[in-house]
Each structure stands twice: as structure tokens, then as C-alpha cells.
From TrEMBL:
The keyword Oxidoreductase applies. This is NADP oxidoreductase. It comes from the Bacteria. InterPro entries: NAD(P)-bd_dom_sf, P5C_Rdtase_cat_N, STEAP_metalloreductase. Residues 3-90 form the Pyrroline-5-carboxylate reductase catalytic N-terminal domain. It holds the Pfam family F420_oxidored.
Length: 234
């Protein structure tokens, strides 16, 4: 497959390593430009690219950047693509600032789709980079981690599930994009490395009345991780 990755943080770089190892053609971009990706490109065989170049990937475009940066992406780069767009992001107000539409009840990935002017599939947001790098195992292995996939296009979701399976995880259709709040930060399905049955139960257990509570608790827990970045930006 021809895959573009926008974002070279922990998830983006891990996906670049694993997808190139599977033989996919990968281009990866970040906000600092291709020169900053030379080492990762040399390590993986991925192509260091601009955002515009990554958006030309024929099959899949993975957007894996902080929520606050989504609105800064040039919408025109997505206008001509027929590729499946995957959103791996999560909204943390202490890092991203307040986003009124999400605070008002819109699922995080619905907001991303609006910002990009494109349908998106929600995936890879509720697994840590270390687990993504190390916990992939062959199908049928006991304890295989399951990852949820939400979106409105069934065929697009099936394609993303196929990538997940190839990476060594079970894939689970988690419903529409509007239902993707069930895998947002703080929910029972968020970053617990659950198997299929456990993930199904966790998604069902999520309480829409507690979305604000889930977000606040996750944001508070994440503050120490964001503090160094926030300090550098002030």
C-alpha cells in the first residue's frame, strides 16, 4: 500500500517503522520539514516528505498530530485525495486549549473531519506507542490486543482493520464516527491493551453522561507529560 503519515511523534514514527517493515511504501511528514526526518527515513526506508507530498499517498493517509494542530493543516491538500484518512489523535485541553465544539458534545474525530473537510476513520488513538511497537503477535495468540475502529464508511473501516491485523492486533468495528467518543481519553476502552472480549465490554460500558468527566480525569493525568512541551512553548 501507499501510505502517508502526517506527524512523526511516538505513534507516527512507530507506525512508520512497522508499516515499512511490512513492505508498504510510506511517506512521513511533520511541521519541521523533511530535513528533520532524515534519521527516521534512513532507519526505516520511509520517504521524508512535506505535508503536501504525504497527502498524495494513494491508499491511506494517517493524521497523527496534536488536536490543536489539526486546524493548521492546509485543507486543500485533502481535497483531491480518494485515500482513506485515519485520525489517531486525542483532545487534551491542557495541551490543545479549549475546543468549543468538542466541549459542546461533538466527538473528537467528528471535529477533525470537519476541519479537514474529509470523512475520517478513528483508529490507533487508544494504544500507547510502546504497546503498538511491542505487543503485535500472530492471529490466534492468547491475549492478543484488540484495537477499535470507528467511522461511517464500512469499507474504509475494513481496510484499516486489515492494517491493524497485519500489525499483529485484532481489529474491532466500534461503530460510527459519532460513537468514537467511546474510545476517547479516560474511557474504559482507552489504552488498557484489552483483548477482543474486554474491548467490546469496555466500549459498551462507556457512559455518555460521563464524557466531560472522562476528559477531565485523562487531562489531569496527562498534565505531567505535557508540562515540558508547554514550558518550551511559553
Amino acid at each position: 500500500m501507499d501510505i502517508g503519515i502526517m506527524g512523526s511523534g511516538h505513534i507516527g514514527s512507530t507506525l512508520a517503522r512497522k508499516l515499512t517493515a511490512l513492505g508498504h511504501r510510506v511517506s512521513i511528514a511533520n511541521s519541521r520539514g523533511p530535513a528533520s526526518l532524515a534519521a527516521l527515513a534512513a532507519e526505516t526506508g520511509a520517504t521524508a516528505a512535506t505535508v503536501e507530498q504525504a497527502a498524495r499517498a494513494r491508499d491511506v493517509i494517517i493524521v497523527t498530530i496534536p488536536q490543536k494542530a489539526v486546524s493548521e493543516l492546509p485543507r486543500h491538500v485533502f481535497a483531491a485525495t480518494s485515500a482513506v484518512v485515519v485520525d489517531t489523535g486525542n483532545y487534551y485541553p491542557s495541551r490543545d486549549g479549549r475546543i468549543a465544539e468538542i466541549d459542546g458534545g461533538l466527538a473528537e474525530s467528528q471535529w477533525v473531519a470537519q476541519m479537514l473537510g474529509r470523512p475520517v476513520v478513528k483508529a490507533f488513538n487508544n494504544i500507547g506507542a510502546n504497546s503498538l511497537a511491542t505487543r503485535g503477535v500472530p492471529a490466534g495468540t492468547p491475549g492478543r490486543v484488540c484495537l477499535s475502529v470507528a467511522g461511517d464508511d464500512v469499507r474504509a473501516k475494513q481496510g484499516v482493520q486489515g492494517i491493524i491485523e497485519a500489525l499483529g492486533f485484532d481489529g474491532l468495528d466500534a461503530g460510527t464516527l459519532a460513537e468514537s467518543w467511546r474510545q476517547q481519553p479516560g474511557t474504559p476502552a482507552y489504552c488498557h491493551d484489552l483483548g477482543r472480549a474486554g474491548l467490546e465490554a469496555a466500549l459498551a460500558q462507556a457512559d455518555a453522561g460521563k464524557i466531560a468527566q472522562y476528559r477531565a480525569e485523562a487531562d489531569e493525568a496527562a498534565r505531567p507529560y505535557f508540562a515540558p512541551t508547554l514550558a518550551r512553548s511559553t
